[in-house]
Write a structure and sequence with these properties.
single chain, mainly alpha, rod-shaped
């Protein structure tokens, strides 16, 4: 009786262990399928279940890392951060015991992103050169406009000076007092001259009278 009971317990344990192994293997297989179909969130969930049941499972751990890095590389690619995306893909190549399909895809994707990165760098350099050239052209244009405007203003000033009539200087008027003084002086001079002439005439008459006598 005891032997039968012990045998039954062994069988039950074997069945439980077998079912657990089947479940773990099933999760591992489905996790790999999700990984290779690029359904990274679902792959991470399934592979995490396998690692919870068997932390030493190298295949599950390797594919879990592949899923994480492929997911990160995809995110960096969308943000045009090709340098970080390439680093994530490059690290997948060094992961052993993972999906061989994902490893091949990571190599091809890395080559693709390196080409995109080179193109992006060339375009950025070209934009920089164009901006520098455009800035120089704008400066030259501005300098030319300034020179032209200065020359135009100078010509306009010269034309205005030529066409502008010469302004007559106003006649300076002497103060009234000076005019009166000059008038009085002139009158005095005239009176003195008349006196001198009268005296001369009188003297001449006297001389004539003496001669007659």
């Amino acid at each position: 009786m005891k032997k039968k009971l012990l045998l039954m317990l062994v069988l039950i344990a074997a069945l439980i262990g077998g079912c657990s192994k089947l479940s773990k293997d099933s999760s591992l297989i489905r996790g790999q399928e999700k990984l290779e179909s690029h359904q990274y969130d679902e792959a991470l969930t399934l592979l995490s279940q396998v690692l919870d049941a068997d932390p030493e499972n190298e295949s599950a751990r390797a594919m879990y890392m592949q899923a994480r890095k492929m997911q990160s590389a995809e995110k960096y690619e969308k943000n045009h951060d090709y340098d970080k995306a390439i680093k994530e893909l490059d690290s997948i190549v060094n992961i052993n015991n993972g999906s061989k399909k994902i490893k091949r895809e990571s190599v091809n994707k890395k080559d693709e992103l390196e080409k995109l990165q080179q193109t992006a760098e060339k375009e950025a350099l070209q934009r920089k050169e164009n901006a520098k050239k455009s800035s120089k052209e704008d400066m030259n244009k501005l300098e030319s406009e300034i020179i032209y405007n200065n020359k135009k203003n100078e010509e306009t000033k010269q034309e205005e000076n030529i066409q502008k009539p010469t302004e007559e200087k106003p006649v300076e008027q002497l103060p009234t007092e000076n005019v009166e003084e000059n008038t009085e002086t002139s009158t005095d001079v005239q009176s003195n001259n008349e006196k001198v002439e009268t005296s001369a005439d009188a003297q001449s008459n006297n001389e004539n009278s003496e001669v007659l006598n």
